[in-house]
């Protein structure tokens, strides 16, 4: 993930933004949110889905919007994404990180989350993007052009993925999953006051351990086409 944000991604995002400035707001393009159990392949799915969708249209480019957004904000402030997620313990860091977004110098955590919600809603409302994590399903829950996805998988599948991707032994991989799953659930509770694992929030809940990512992307694309017929 540390190499996910690169000049090519930035160029795509800028191109997407310019195209969306002239998009017909009366007919918004579709967008997606992806939530997942920690260890599932959300970013590979987002990338595979965007690749498929860009291949089928010559119009506005599709882009992935996720952790890299916070990464870029963090670079400007000198803080890491992990510090942002643990920001209930460092309110001063929160104010510094999001100072560029907020008019008030006395911004509280709830105001920061409210602003992030509007940022994500802006992406989702304009369409042609895949929002990964960060409570996007709550931010865009009521938008008719937005399709909400959730990836789940067996614990064993997720442990094996983390062992492979991070070079950890089983015990460390299990600790890693438990820690990050807790952090994400806490982030969402503070951000949206909701339960991210509620299946009623989603159009599709897919078992990541049953299907390869390219097949999941194919199913999601077909679902989008059928839904918009």
What does this structure look like?
The chain has 229 residues and is of the alpha/beta class. It has a single domain (30-223), classed as Rossmann fold, CATH 3.40.50. Helix content is 54%, strand content 10%. It has helices at residues 7-20, 42-55, 67-77, 81-85, 91-97, 109-126, 136-139, 155-166, 170-192, 213-227, and strands at residues 31-36, 63-65, 129-132, 146-152, 204-207. It has a 5-stranded parallel β-sheet with strand order 2-3-1-4-5, with helices on both faces. Helix 8 (155-166) packs across helix 9. The longest helix is centred in the last third of the chain and has 23 residues, at 170-192. Mean pLDDT is 76; it is low at 1-5 and 88-108.
Question: Strand order of the main beta sheet, please?
Answer: 2-3-1-4-5
Broad shape: globular
Which secondary-structure class do the elements indicate? alpha/beta
Query: Could you state the order of secondary-structure elements as H and E?
Result: HEHEHHHHEHEHHEH
Radius of gyration: 17 Å
> Could you describe the largest sheet, including whether it forms a barrel?
5 strands, parallel
- Low-pLDDT sequence parts: 1-5, 88-108
CATH class designation: Alpha Beta
Q: What is the arithmetic mean of pLDDT? A: 76
Binned, the helix content reads 40-55%
Task: Look at the structure and name the CATH superfamily.
Answer: P-loop containing nucleotide triphosphate hydrolases
Number of beta strands: 5
CATH architecture verdict: 3-Layer(aba) Sandwich
**What is the distance, rounded to the nearest whole angstrom, between the alpha carbons of the first and last residues?**
35 Å
Residues in β-strands, percent: 5-15%
> How many H/I helical runs?
10
Whole-number tally of structural domains: 1
**Could you say what the CATH topology is called?**
Rossmann fold
């Amino acid at each position: 993930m540390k190499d996910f944000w690169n000049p090519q991604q930035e160029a795509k995002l800028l191109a997407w933004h310019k195209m969306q400035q002239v998009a017909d707001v009366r007919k918004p393009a579709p967008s997606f949110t992806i939530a997942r159990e920690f260890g599932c392949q959300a970013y590979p799915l987002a990338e595979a889905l965007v690749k498929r969708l860009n291949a089928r249209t010559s119009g506005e480019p599709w882009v992935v919007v996720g952790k890299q957004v916070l990464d870029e904000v963090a670079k400007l402030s000198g803080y890491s994404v992990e510090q942002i997620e643990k920001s209930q313990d460092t309110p001063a860091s929160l104010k510094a990180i999001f100072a560029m977004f907020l008019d008030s110098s006395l911004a509280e955590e709830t105001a920061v989350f409210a602003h992030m919600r509007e940022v994500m809603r802006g992406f989702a409302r304009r369409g042609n993007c895949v929002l990964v994590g960060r409570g996007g399903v709550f931010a865009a829950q009521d938008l008719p052009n937005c399709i909400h996805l959730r990836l789940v998988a067996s614990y064993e599948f997720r442990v094996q993925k983390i062992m492979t991707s991070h070079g950890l032994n089983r015990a460390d991989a299990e600790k890693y999953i438990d820690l990050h799953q807790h952090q994400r659930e806490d982030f969402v509770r503070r951000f949206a006051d909701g339960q991210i694992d509620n299946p009623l929030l989603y159009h599709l809940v897919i078992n990541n351990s049953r299907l390869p990512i390219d097949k999941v992307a194919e199913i999601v694309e077909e679902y989008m086409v059928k839904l918009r017929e």
